[in-house]
Every structure is written in structure tokens, then in C-alpha cells.
Fold this sequence. Notes:
The two termini are 41 Å apart. Strand 2 (115-117) and strand 3 form a beta hairpin. The relative contact order is 0.11. The chain is elongated. The protein is of the alpha+beta class. The chain has four domains: 1-50 and 377-537, Multidrug efflux transporter AcrB transmembrane domain (Multidrug efflux transporter AcrB transmembrane fold, Up-down Bundle); 80-142 and 200-350 and 602-606, no CATH class; 546-587 and 763-932, Multidrug efflux transporter AcrB transmembrane domain (Multidrug efflux transporter AcrB transmembrane fold), CATH 1.20.1640.10; 620-729 and 731-761, no CATH class. The longest helix is centred in the middle third of the chain and has 37 residues, at 487-523. This is Putative conserved plasma membrane protein. Keywords: Membrane, Transmembrane, Transmembrane helix. It comes from Corethrella appendiculata. InterPro entries: HMGCR/SNAP/NPC1-like_SSD (IPR053958), Patched_domain-protein (IPR051697), SSD (IPR000731).
Amino acid sequence: LSCLGRLSYKVSQKIGSLFxxxxxxxxxxxxxxxxxxxMFVLICSLGFLRFHNExxxxxxxxxxxxKFLHDTNWLMSNFEExxxxxxxxxxxxxxxEPSVLQKVSYISDEVFNLRTRDKEGxxxxxxxxxxxxxxxxxxxxxxxxxxxxxxxxEDDFFNDIFDKSHKKNSKEDRNATSISTTIKPSRKHSKKKxxxxxxxxxxxxxxxxxxxxxxxxxxxxxxxLWKFDKRKIDKLTKIEILKTxxxxxxxPVTGHDMEFVHLLGDVVQDENGIIISAKSxxxxxxLQVNFTETxxxxxxxxxxxxxxxxxxxxRWEQKxxxxxxxxxxxxxxxxxxxxxxxxxxxxxxxxxxxxxDMDKLAIGIIIMFVYxxxxxxxxxxxxxxxxxxxxGLLSVGMAYISGCGICSILGIPYTPVHTSLxxxxxxxxVDDIFVMMACFRKIQNQFTEKLLPERMGLTLQHAGASITVxxxxxxxxxxxxxxxxxPSLQSFCLYAAFNVFLxxxxxxxxFVAIFAxxxxxxxxxxxxxxxxLVHNEERTKIWCQKNLMKRFLNFLYKELxxxxxxxxxxxxxxxxxxxxxxxxxxxxxxxxxPIWFIPExxxxxxxxxxxxxxxxxxxxxxxxxxxxxxxxxxxxxxxNISQRIDERNDILHDVKSWAIPFQEFVQTNYDKDIAHTELxxxxxxxxxxxxxxxxxxxxxxxxxxxxKKLKCGQPVPNITVATIDFKFRKxxxxxxxxxxxxxxxxxxxxxxxxxxxxxxxSKAFGNWVTDEIIDEEIYxxxxxxxxxxxxxxxxxxxxxxxxxxxxxxxxxxxINIGGCMQRWNLTLDIVCCIALQLAVGLxxxxxxxxxxxFLTINRGNRNxxxxxxxxxxxxxxxxxxxxxxxxxxxxxxxxxxxYRTFVKIFFLVVVFxxxxxxxxxxxxxxxxxxxxxxxxxxxxxxSSSLSLNGSIKNKKYKNNLDIxxxxxxxxxxxxxxxxxxxxxxxxxxxTTLTHKxxxxxxxxxxxxxxxxxxxxxxxxxxxxx
Length: 1025
């Protein structure tokens, strides 16, 4: 043997010896093993005292080192409040019909009158939680006939207060002022100085009026045109509706500027631009959210998709959803349809979709359990493995509980993606159980005379090494995956690594103990369902047992696959299929749409689809956020930013900047151009205060936060936050929104504000920053996992050739999975990232079982060893793959995107994993497979021997098992002629019978020890078991 060959031989012997000792000991003391296992689970369960289910989306889906997370935390701690929007969308042939507006009026009244209770029993109304704004409608209402125009002049607000008439300059075209990166003076384009009360009046008198202004709730509703007066609305005619809509640019309810046309969808205009009809009407209600009162542990959901909100807001929104559901059912007709969305809708529905199909999953598990019984059992009253199958699945649950307990102790949070972890454990655990059962049946057929502990030791000797290889490679794959920057995936991989390790431990201890007890029951011919009932030999069989799978595999491989023609066909098939899938893999793209988490039949999905159809330009809101800057120094830069983002109408629209109106205000009233003249700190504070309490600047108060309360007539305090608002256009592809995000950020970077914090922020960035890196994370994690798996298999299998072919099979499996994903309309997103991480762990198992077993077969040429490998372990591998599919089979009809994606990817993993593991790899090994662990393969078709190294000391009987050296694996082609020949050869090879220290020892000519106990000791050992 070569140096590496001798090393692999010694390591395989040592591993086999250790597993033999473990199996023997566990089978000798099964109840102690079971007791210790349950005690361990109980101790680990104490970790649930520190269990934390993470619900904060910022700690689940956003890279913790990302700029977006830093900016969001800064914004929440400094801005302190925000809004949540409740929406109602009405569609009809023409929503500007009187009958439609009457129904809208009824719906609006129902929303305004909603009442619910908080957790303390206090009543919550719309006025308690709405976002408040100053109501200036009484002052902007017309006391005389006004000219029709787009916006009010600056002094209109105060003309009503004093009933003065001032001559107006003709409205200037704002587009006449060139907006470019080079700021031009506003002097030439400024308005002629007119009376401005905020500047020209006595501050004490003026501020006395301002401070008396009432506040009211913010909403956007076409019925504001008639102040929600039901009597007026009931008497409206179509002409009156169109006339009022086309003329009004200020809300009669709040007094603020309002473009009511923005609430209309699919608008029809005549040749003069006058609106004459529309297909949809949008109504919006704004709720106030105080970030300092938000506790995600209280209001978050198990899916981690809820937005920031207080408990009161969440309760009112729940009432809103219930009421709109009722109105939708009662008011919907063929010509009038209602669609709606609440602030909590996405979180509620996405969370429900992740858990709505748990009943289907439970059915799938039951199906898998029945399948396990078919695979593990023989059809007799004593050999139906009902207890073994049940407790085998219990070992999966024990591993899950223990693993979660340990991770909780270590402070690792539990996340929504962990719901897929039990499926992984069942797939791996059941696969290991099938492998162990396959080995036990072979041992049982070959060594019926051996005692039960010895047979269990031999079973674990042969199965343990294979199970170890697959389990440790899975663990390495998950530990590598834990290096990701995505918090939820990182936590999942750590949980998976711990759970797989404990699953491995429980399979080789707890399950072996259960196995030994169940086998003892069978030996005593006790009934599987009623153990106290003992059968005689003649009455145990239910029907004849036929091993059809083994016969089928023997025919398939011997007559087809392992023939020269069969091998060529398999290789050609792999090349052709992989070629097609490589082409598809190159087209696989990254895309994630949050609507995928929303089932199609839900009210929110219907609302979103209608909004996309009727309001295609309504994109995501964004902000330029500035902190504690030297604003007098940075004003030119802020103006530059405002003008440049206003130019980017290809990606932005509806830019609302306070900087340009402030520039015009100062130019008009103080004859200073702030673009080129740096103001003193005192002047800046004075001018900004006047501006924010003027008719043109009052609406921008919401864009500022100060370290003290802003007061009329006093200079503004230190600015802590200032924002410029804009909206992105509607984007659907990463190739659209990522460049748009980068373009806006580049504008800010090039402006180079140096005196403090500044950034671009949008709520949509939460998804965009993840989308920007997710494909890189997937390829990185899979690549590192493959390297880790390759390294692990080399260390454990210690045969470079087999490890290389295992690596090729895993790589081909992943390539084909990726190609089929593209053909199946799947994209790279967070769900696929998790599923593919699982795929690495699962698909390596199939090939590793075959590769390791091939090295333990020492008889015959490569073809013969390959056939024996398949007959020994192939059946168990196939059963394990099918069990994974069965566990998820009921989720095929699921409407949840998460489950649909998992089913598709797991199906691909099993199909391609099994094909490459039990078809391609055997073909490759039959062509260029290496020698077995023991060195040169034995060409005799009947030679059979067993190596059991080391000794096991039974303290109770002071009995030593001395085992000699030899090969590692038996011949498992179990036809009758071979069995007879093997027995004959073993008999002929007996050369010496010696009796030493009361023990009968049979020495075989090749040095193998066959029997190690006297008849008396055998009887005593059986009685003990």
C-alpha cells in the first residue's frame, strides 16, 4: 500500500473499532443509554429560559454592517416619529359619478368612526392616533372670487386674515430658472417684494394668530373637496364634481396644497386637459408612529416582516382591516369594487403564509412515517417496526430541542427561516436510520449465530463510518455558511450545525439502544402492537416478504447501467443535461419582490396588483437626510443637491425640497442670494424661523427636527435633522433600482457635505441592499461549503480519488439545480439562498454513502465491488431521498412562496443528488475506482472476512473480545450459493481450536477471530440482555 493507503487503512480500522465498541456497549446497556439521552435533552432544554425569537426585520434581513442599518438607527433615534398609511382603492367604470362618491362617503364615515380598545381597556379612536397637521383652511378659504391658478400666491393665506387686496405679479414659470449643478443667482428670477405677514407684521401679533391655529388629522381623500359633508355629496351632479375637481388645488379641510388628481387612476382628459373621468380612486389615512414607543418584541410577528408601530396603532389597524373586509363583502358589485391595505397587512399576511400550511406538513410527516414502516418492517406480527419508526422520529425531535436549547444558551436568536430546520433533520435522520437498517440486515443474514450486542456492534461498525462522513460534511457546510453577512442565514446555519451534530449523536446512541430493544422483542416473538402477546413461529408471518427493490437494483445495474453500453449512456446523459443546465444557469438572475410572500388569493395581493396597474408611477418614497451640520456653510451644497435630484426625472419625481423655496424667500424679503452669500448664524436662524412660519414655508416644518421646541417669533434652535423628500419611479428589476439608488447616492457624495452627517435613505433600501449582495453571498457560501466538504471528506475518507469524484457529483448536482431553477422561473433571493445551503448538505450525503462504502468492499473487480456497493447501501440511499420528498409532498399545492420554493428546490436536490450519487458515481467508480481500504481487492468471488480491531471489556463478566486484523467489509451479494460457499470456506479455514482461561477461541487461517465466548457465557449474556 502507498503511504496514504496505509494511513486510510489504519484510520478506517480505528474508526470501525470505535464504533464497534460503542454499538456493543449501547446494546448491552440500552436503558442506561436512553436515560442518559433524555437527561441530556432535559438539561439542554434549560437553555429555553434564554430563548429569543427575533422579530425585528432590521436584525433579520439586513447585513449588520450595512450603511442602511446605520442610517436607519440614526434616523429613528433622531427623527423619532413617522407615519403608517391605510389605503382604500375604489374602482368603477367612472369613479367621478355621484353614486360612486356616495359610497365612498359611506366608507370614509365608517373609517373615521372606528373605535377599539388598547390592552388596558381604553378606547382608541381615529383622532387619538392620526398624524396631526395644522389646519389653516379657515384662513385660506376664499372670501372673494379668485383667479383659477395652479398654486396660491405667497400672501393668499394672510389676505383672508386681513381681507386685504394686493396686486399680484403674474405667475412666473418656475422652469425658466435653469437648474444645473452650477447654482445661479435667484435675484433675476425672484418675485417682486409683496406683503408677507411673517416678515412685515409685528411678531407678537402675528405669532399670536399662528399659535391659535388648530391641528387636525392628515388624510388624502377626494371628499375633502366638499368637506365630507354628506348632504352636499348626496346632491352632487357629475358636472359639479368635475368642475370642483379641476379647479381646486388646496384642500378645503386642511388648507394645504393638494393635487387631487394624484388620487385618480386611469384618468381620461379632454383636448384642453380637463379631467372628465377616471377608473379608480384612492383614499389615504395617515397614522402617527413614535419610534421611541415601538417595541418589536411586542408588535413584531414570527416572520419578522412587521413594520415599526405602537400597540395602539396595531389594534386600530386590525379594526380597520376587519371593517374593510365587511364593507368589501357588502358593497362590491360588478361596477364597484373595493381594495384595501393597512399598515399591518403585509406583516400579518406574510407571517400567516409561512405557517398556514402546517396541517399539510403534518400530513406529509404522517405519510413519511407510514413509508418508514414499509421500508423498515418485514410483514409479520413481530417485525413491524412501529416502535422503532416512532422513536426514530423522536430522536429527530430530541436533536431539535437540544440544539435549540444550546443555541439559546449561547445567545443565538431564533428566526423565521428556522421553520425549515425540522425538515432537514428528518431528511438526514431518516437517511441515517435506513443506512443502519441496511447494515443490520446484512449482518443478521451473515452472522445469525452472534449475540445481539455483537451484531449491533458490527452494524454500527459498518454504518457508523458512513454516517460520520455525511454528518460531519453537513456540519462543515453549515459552519461555513455561518460566515455570511445575512443575520437570519447566519443564525440558521449555526442552529443547523448544532442540530445536525446532535442528530448524529442521538442516532448512534439513542436510536441504537431503541434498535437493540426492538430486536430483543422480535427475538422473543412479541407482537409489534401488543408486546405482551407472544407468537409462535408459524403464526408470525402476515404475508410473504419479497425484496423487490434489491432484485430491481441487481437487474438494473448488472444488466444495464454497469454494462459498457450503459456506462456510455449514463456519461452522455450527464454531459447533455449538464450542458443544457449550464446554459440556463448563466441566465439565472437575482430578483426578489416582497409581493411573493403574499398569496394571490389575499386582499393585499389584489390591492397591490391593482395599484401597479392603475398607478404605475407611484414609486417608493426617499429622503436626503442631514444631521447637525453647519447649515450656513453648507447651504450652497444643499441647494446644489436639491437642484441635481430635481433634474433626475428619469429615476425620480415629486421632489419636495425646502432649500429652493427658502432661497426664494430670503431673496424676495431680505434681498440676499444664499447661493453665493454666506449668512451669519444669527441671520440664518432668524430667516429660517420666518420662513417656517410663512405660508410658503409652513409645510416644511415636518422636514425639520430641533434640539428644542420651535417657537414662532424666535430664532430656530439647533437643527438635529433636516430632510429633502422625493419619490423614486416605479421599479421592478434590480437592474433598475440599484443603479437608481447608486445615482442618488453619488449626487450626495459628489456634493461633499463635510460638516456633519448626511445620507440618502428610503425604506425600500431595506430590500435593495440585500438584493445587491444576495447573489454574491449565495455563490460565496456554496463555494466555501464545497471547499469545506471536500476537505472534510478527504480527512475522513482519506482517499483522494473517491473524494474527488464525490466533489464532482456534488458540483454537478448544484449546477443542474441552478439551471433547472431558471427554467422553473425561480430567482436568487433569501429563500433560495437558504434552500441552496441545505442542498449542499443533502446532496453530499448521497454520494458520500456510495463512495465510502465502495472503499470498504474488498472482493472482486471494480464492477463487482460497485454492484455490491449498490446492493448494500443503494437501497437505503434511495429510500432516504424518497422520504425527503414525501415529507414535503403535501406542500406542492401550498400558496405560500416559501414552501413552494422549498418544495421545488428540494425536489431538484433529491432527483439530481440521487442520480449523480447512485448512478453517475457508481459508473465512475466502476471505471477508475481506487483499491479498497485493505489494499488490493480480492478476486475470489467467495472470500469473506471481517476485521474487528481492539478489545471491549465487559466489567460484569470480565470478558475480553480479542479481534484480529483483516479486511473491512463483508460480501453482501446474498444468494444461497454464495452463502453456502462462504460457510464451506470458513469451515475449511478452521485450523486451531484452543481453550484458554475458560474461553473457547476459534482461530481462522487468515488470522481472524470468529467467536470469542464459551457457550456458558453466551447464555449468561443473552439472559442479561
